Structure prediction request, 326 residues.
Amino acid sequence: MQRTLGRSDIRISGLGMGCWAIGGPFFSDTGACGWGEVDDDESIRTVHRAIDMGVNFFDTADVYGAGHSERILGRALAGRRDQVVVATKWGNRFDEETKYIVGTGESPDYVREAVEASLRRLGTDYIDLYQFHLNGFEIDRAAELLPVLEDLVDQGKIRSYGWSTDSPEGAEAWGAGGAHCTAVQSDFSVMYGGKSEVVEVCERHNLASINRGPLAMGLLTGKYNAETRVGRDDVRGSDAPWMTLFEDGRPAPEYLARLEAVREVLTSDGRTLAQGALGWLWAVSDRTVPIPGCRTVAQLEENAGALEKGPLTSAQVEEVAALLGS
Prediction:
C-alpha cells in the first residue's frame, strides 16, 4: 500500500515509522518527554526491518531525545538514504547535553539554523518533509514562515513542508497559502470515532494527513488496562497539560471504555487490535498516513503486518461510529 505525499510527487508507504521513542530520554519543566531508556542497536535493527517490510517513511523531530532520534535515524539510514522518505520537525530549542527543552524557536532565522542542524544530525543533504512542531502557534505569525520554507525548497535543503497542528484553521491557512505545503500532521486515531476536521482540510487541499498517536499512545495495542501504571520516566506519566489519554500514568477510564467498545470490530478478520486501529485510519480517508511509534523489531513487525490486511470496510467504519456515538 502506497500513498502520494500530498501535492508533491513523493511516494511513501501507507504506514510510516514514528521515531519519537527511539530518541530516548529528554525533559521539560512538566517532566519526562520521552518514553524511557532505549537500545540504540535495537532501534537501528527496527529501522532496517521497516525498510525490508516495505515501510519507507520515517518521521522524527529534532527535539526527540534532544537530537538523539535524528542521529540514530541517520546512522540507520547510512547507505540506504535513497530508499526512504525522511520527515523531521523544528520549533523547540533544546540543550543536547542536559537533554532539556529550553524554549521555542519560531523566527524565520531560526528555521534556517534548525534545518542545518537537522541535516548534520541526519547525515543527509536534504529533508523530504520539514514540519513546524509548535502545535498551537498563532496562525498569522506562522504564515510569516512560509517564504523562508519556500526558499529552502528552492535551495534543495527540503523537498516539502507542513505543520504538526491540531488546529483546522492552521491547517487551512498553510494548505491554502503554501505552494510546497504537502502535509499536516495531527493527533488522530479510532478513539475519535470518525473523521476529524483536520483530515477534512487535508482532503480539500490535497494534503497528506500524517496521523500521530494512531495507536493512542499504546492504548490501542491492548497492552494496558485499569491497573497499569507507567513510570515517571515515561511521557505518559508526566504532568504535560495535553496528556489526556493517561492520568497520573494510568490509562484514562474514558478511553479504556472506548477501546472495549470497538475491540471486536478492530480484531475481526484475523487482525490484532493495533492492526485494526491502523486499518480504520486507512478506511476513513485516502489521505491518511499513520506513523505508529516503535522501538523494537517485534513492534514494527506487528504494525507493518497491517499493510497486508489493508483498510477496514466501510461497513466496519460505520459500525465503529455507531459504537462510539460519533
